[in-house]
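re: ur question from the group chat, yeah i did fold both. here u go
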Amino acid sequence: MMMRRRTIRANLRVRRGHSYRQRIKLNLLIPVKRSDIVKAVLKEHGRQFTAVMAQATDILEKVFAYKVVELESKKNNYILINNIGTAHSDNENTCKGSDAAKIGLLTCILAGIFMTGELMPEGSMKEYLKKLDIDLDSKEVHPAFGNISKLINQDFVRQKYLEITQDTTADPPTREYRWGERAHHELSKKDVLELVCKVYGNNMRPQTWTTQWRVAQGQE
């Protein structure tokens, strides 16, 4: 039993430091299955999963300020959530180049969806992005974002920042964009609303947007 505990502890050893923090974050940016965790970490000690996961979750939260969350839409699948205020509070100083640009784009998209009633049809999304000089249908490689369609319709969806469903009542059927589970966990709608007010300027207050303010208040 002592050897088993040592093996588990060795496999779960957490090193302090920025580079390891970033590595942990990247490893759980995409949802991870329980079976994959058992296979890669616990191996023959799979029955210890619940106890070990609780210990690992506690370490991640206390040391790195990240929280492990099981997806409601997909049981036994886990994502790593930034547990410091908003989703990208620590990225402003650590992300550079294309990563920072993608974070900015994602923030704009999530803000746009929230301000349009928490659902944005595909046509509205394309028009919204055009105002940012981004063509969702472009086949060209964007210098900052790469393949725009793949980034938004696949990568952000896989990372659970966006949820895309099909509106089958439309002719032809079209996509609808909503916040994904990770976005709901990481982002404060109140912070998003305050950001929008800063963009508009003129000392605009969040309460000006009565519907959005009510939703933001309900999140707290």
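okk and heres the other one u asked abt
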Amino acid sequence: MKYDNIYHIKSAFYSYRQRELRFRYHLHRDRDRERETIAWCKVVVVVSLLLAWQETEMEKFGNLNTDIHFDVLSRLPTKNLAELMLVSKGWHQLITDLSFIKVQSQRIQLLSGFFFQQRFQWCREDIETINYIPVKWEGGELYKKVFDFLPQDVVLLASCNGLFCCRSCFPFEQPTLFVCNPLNKEWIKLDWAEPGKEKNIALAFDPFHDFSDNSTNFKLVRVSQSENEQEELYFSFDIYSSKTKRWKLSKEICWCNSNLYKNKGVFIGGILHWLTDADQILTFNVDNELAWLISAPLPAVEFNSAPESCIGESQGSLHYIMVSEEGLHVWFLEDYFDFTWSLKHCKTLAEMEQEHSQFFYNLERRVKLRRTVDDSPWMDPLAFKDGVLLLRVSNTIYLYHIERRKMDQVCDISKFGTYSLFCPTVLPYSMSLVPLLSKA
């Protein structure tokens, strides 16, 4: 047993040593991240030696206090913890302990990557392939089997703090909803009483309030659009609670003549947000069951060509990203009551082209050619999280680290399985150790 521990510790040490050397090689590209990662590598190696000593000397000195190990490991990114569970049985027991997960999950979990699932515009059948793009893109192949642990092929509906909501692929025999955690491969099955391909279901899960030693609680919010006798459109909200295991229709409605568009419900501070196709953002407070509309920072009519937008979260705030003939603009919402937006980032298309000339050519002219929203955009912001924008330009997908001005070319759209450009489902993913505890 002792030699197995030493083998795993050496493997972990060499793995982190190789990572340190690789980051040193790319020092000129990302000095701050390199320093942070090397620091964590050294911490992990030291703790590895401490735990190895503890396990081999336990017979002599008895059980040692693990508070230091608990505190240090709980500060590590979830991805590293998933790897370190293989070091020893002691580490696996500590990292999978519910009290440890509760503390670790309440620390800020940075973006791990994006899930990308294409859609057909006119065909009723769903595209089954789900692609994963890690935020630290180093080339290679896309991950396509992350959700293979589920009993059937699924379509992604929503993500929230490491959990996902999915539905059965069309066509199906028994319509089903799943809530799952792809890191620990745990899932819960829910009956889907009102199946529909275009049903919009969002997921609300806050690890600060919804996770305890006994249960992991979450809510699903199904948004439906209806029409009254005066042909006025409004949104209604059905809520599923994992505590009651029942759906209920909220008394709240929101009058709105526009349609939901992109981003399948962004959850921030207890509030779900949906982008619409008419310069508005639909919001719904999950606990208080209150809905309202927030105007976009700039209306589309201000531009000669049709701009394209998405919303996302960074540093606990709602962000609005727009690509237009004027360039790339990023705002964040300062105040929910006054609907105050502040401009955080602005870059002209000419500046983007100059900084990334190996990727782009004649951006401004091509973006200006889009006159109506029915035309496919040349430059399409697909999803945003923690300062990282997943961007499609023509037929190529890019990861754009906005504040660092770093652009990574991922691949051609055909690598995702089809050539379909129609409104793909793109969801950010932050890894989580949170268990779902039971399967139905």
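fwiw on the second one: The two ends are 37 Å apart (CA to CA). Residues 31-56 form the longest helix (26 residues). idk if thats what u expected
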